[in-house]
Design brief:
single chain, three-stranded mixed sheet, 448 residues, 10 helices, globular, alpha+beta, seven-stranded antiparallel sheet
Length: 448
């Protein structure tokens, strides 16, 4: 074999080695699969199909004459449209197959502040509702087992981030500059406070208290353990339910507390269902926000006060799934009837009560068995009689939230009964008003 043949042979061997090497690399590339990143859930916008937002002029006009059926229809229909949008199912779902509703996809103030992305583990970060932690409220919490969270819509979240709303340095700078309030939230902002009770369909933890209306002929604290004939049983299937004292889990908006989904909290353990029993909802469509609250009802077509058959009648104007259709509603777009002006109004007119039974009904003044309403109250008129308006069943969310400010230690918040509060009430030169959001106070935290 001559030198030329050897040279050709060496070239062929080299080419063969190159081909084999490339082939091996391709084989490795084809068989390699990068690990999938942790699933991220994206907060969803409020649907555009529910006429939201409504102009402030329209909503304020509704409150000027509550005797006009058209105005009542406008308020109640609007409240149900908001509920329909919040509870609409999105295309998102968790790893365990839970189909996520619009309101569930949003982030909490703490998650916004910490820049946390949403995933299966933190979608439902249960905690004790702030207002239940004041006075001797913790005793009631242990008995009733309520837990929940606050969440902000995308429009509200964007405003928080752009304005540095949760940054103490920003807040202190505003106060130092002479500002008396934060920049108000944009019109499309929504804030929600849902609360849940735990049930388990296999271990006997399957009963809850459901609202039967306020006490008859008396004014007192009225938390869950006081509600007469209020226990119902939650069962697995519709075939086991009777629609009176037994209801299927599918009759409730709920999520499953399991080890791959949500961490246990308080009385909520792995294997439980967390069922939605109540939700406060506020929207910044007006300067004083709109206020509506929802709670689960045995008989949603004929719910108890502070809802009514009239409230329920407008639910038919929206499309809801079976679970969302099982809730009662109350709404208050003013503190008094008729509405007082934003500025220089008076504490006159009929008291307009709107509270959530699971969140406020157990409140009472100093000296009661659950003293949470601690002051700043004024008497009013209800059904033509003078009332003290210092119990939870005499409240209206607006009267309390208009006083949201920072700094103000959460352990000493002064809740109110129903009363008029001037929009420009002065809380001092070193206090920043928070556009009705106590959740901003809680997220800013104590001054450092």
């Amino acid at each position: 074999m001559n030198k030329r043949d050897n040279k050709i042979r060496l070239i062929l061997i080299a080419l063969l080695v190159i081909i084999v090497t490339i082939s091996c690399k391709d084989e490795k590339t084809e068989s390699y699969q990068a690990p999938e990143p942790e699933q991220k859930l994206v907060p969803q916008p409020f649907p555009t199909t529910y006429g939201f937002p409504v102009s402030e002029a329209t909503l304020i006009a509704y409150t000027q004459d509550y005797s006009n059926p058209k105005n009542i229809e406008g308020i109640y229909t609007h409240a149900w449209q908001i509920w329909a949008g919040l509870t609409q199912t999105t295309d998102l779902e968790t790893a365990n197959g839970h189909k996520i509703r619009v309101f569930e996809s949003w982030r909490t103030p703490q998650q916004i502040k910490s820049e946390d992305t949403i995933n299966d583990k933190n979608l439902f970060p249960l905690t004790v509702p702030h207002q239940l932690g004041h006075g001797v409220g913790m005793d009631s919490i242990n008995e009733t087992q309520l837990a929940g969270f606050v969440k902000y819509s995308l429009a509200a979240e964007k405003h928080v981030i752009e304005q540095g709303i949760f940054d103490q340095k920003v807040a202190k700078s505003l106060i130092k500059s002479g500002a008396s309030q934060i920049i108000g939230f944009p019109t499309k902002s929504i804030m929600i406070k849902p609360v849940f009770l735990p049930v388990n369909l296999t271990n006997g933890k399957d009963t809850i208290h459901v609202w039967q209306g306020p006490p008859k002929d008396t004014i007192r604290t009225w938390d869950q353990n006081d509600w007469p004939n209020s226990l119902i049983k939650v069962v697995k299937n519709k075939s086991e339910a009777d629609g009176k004292t037994k209801f299927a889990i599918s009759d409730f908006i709920n999520f499953k507390v399991d080890q791959n989904f949500t961490e246990p909290f308080g009385s909520f353990e792995h294997g439980d269902y967390a069922i939605l029993v109540g939700m406060h909802v506020m929207t910044k469509e007006t300067t004083r926000w709109t206020w509506q609250s929802f709670w689960w009802s045995q008989y949603p077509d004929t719910p108890h006060f502070p809802s009514s058959e009239l409230h329920a009648s407008y639910r038919s104007k929206v499309t809801l799934d079976g679970a969302a259709n099982h809730y009662a509603m109350t709404a208050a777009y003013s503190t008094k009837i008729p509405a007082q002006p934003y500025i220089n109004g008076q504490n006159t007119g009929e008291s307009l009560y709107a509270y959530n039974p699971y969140l406020e009904a157990g409140f009472g003044p100093a000296g009661s068995n659950n003293p949470v309403l601690l002051g700043e109250n004024e008497s009013g008129i209800y059904n033509g009689k003078t009332v003290e308006n210092n119990y939870g069943i005499q409240t209206n969310c607006m009267s309390c939230h208009i006083q949201a400010r920072w700094p103000q230690n959460n352990s000493s918040l002064n809740y109110n009964g129903n009363r008029y509060v001037d929009f420009q009430q002065n809380y001092g030169k070193d206090t920043l008003q928070l556009d009705f959001l106590w959740s901003v106070n809680a997220t800013l935290g104590l001054t450092k």
